[in-house]
Fold:
Amino acid sequence: MAVDRRRKAKVQEKKSLYLVFLYGKTADNWRKYLEAKKDAEKAVLVAKVAHYGDVNEKLKSLNVERYLYRQTRILTTI
Structure:
């Protein structure tokens, strides 16, 4: 959960800095936005790795068939 909150905070920061750049187009605002964008991309990557790590742990458990059935059922209902 902490990874998800950190990801959301970084993405929100990137969005707000982009709006700051749009209202005041300076090189400093652009640099801050680009740094925030890189940080947000890293946070999203960490969140993806954590998510897939959890999925892999669930697949290794004894309830593999039930987990796969549940995921398939969720995907087919969407």
About this structure: The chain is about 90% helix and 0% strand. The chain has a mean pLDDT of 83.
